[in-house]
Amino acid sequence: MDKQERVNTIVSILKNKSGASIKELSHQLDVTEMTVRRDIKYLKENKIVQVVSGAVIYNGSDPNENKQDEYDLTTQKNNRASEKYNIGKLAASLIEPNDIIFIDIGTTTAQIIEHIPSNHSVEIVCCTMNALIEIHKKGFKDFILIGGHYRPELQMFESREGLDLISRTRTTKAFISAAGVNAKLGITCTNSCEVDTKNAAINCALEKILVIDSSKFDMVKSTYFASLNDFDAIVTDRGLSEEWNEKIKQLNISLYLA
């Protein structure tokens, strides 16, 4: 049972009971209490459950119910906001003067731009409105905006001409986002329209950096776009499990924890 299945099962159990302890959930799911605590933490952060006097209680409404494969940049902005802020800050510290960087879609990747020193001589390649806004706020003038058809739910521009432009542009670092990372099924996203852009950016970068919060590990979304071995580094938060920490090190991928 993967994380998403466990989370769904926990919610189902709590919907039918007035509450359950960590121990009870551990027994019913046949997993360790530590695993259940991580899942409960995820559910609490998304305001789906609360813990009262040691009992886990369903909040009465699940904002993600029947919407697990939908993604909207505006609604995602405040989800795990502190983790995304810290991840963006750490990722920005990897940028060196004269770097040419690609910024992928997403709320976490946009945080990177906010933390790049204004006096850095850096060229930015981006394909989203939210990244463009951050670039404007910081006053960076050396950037390439990939144009095309606008997808408001992602704030993303997409076109064949845009893909050609990415393919002709060489970057020193590509900061790539994802919606799920699974040891067996690889790295996935929610929207198929993202795949060509992500792959073009990965193929044309000297260093590929996955920027993702720890809640996305063990999750699987519908659209595959890369494997872990395609990346040189991962930037995430300290909520990453020890199991994943060891797995990433075994693959000789640099790991940065914010």
Automatic annotation (TrEMBL):
PROSITE patterns recorded: HTH_DEOR_1, HTH_DEOR_2
Keyword field contains 4Fe-4S: no
SUPFAM superfamilies assigned: NagB/RpiA/CoA transferase-like (SSF100950), Winged helix' DNA-binding domain (SSF46785)
Annotated Pfam families: DeoRC, HTH_DeoR
Gene3D superfamilies the record matches: Winged helix-like DNA-binding domain superfamily/Winged helix DNA-binding domain
Signal peptide location: none
Key word DNA-binding present: yes
HTH deoR-type domain span: 3-58
Keyword list, A-Z: DNA-binding, Transcription, Transcription regulation
Protein name: HTH deoR-type domain-containing protein
Phylogenetic lineage: Bacteria, Bacillati, Bacillota, Bacilli, Bacillales
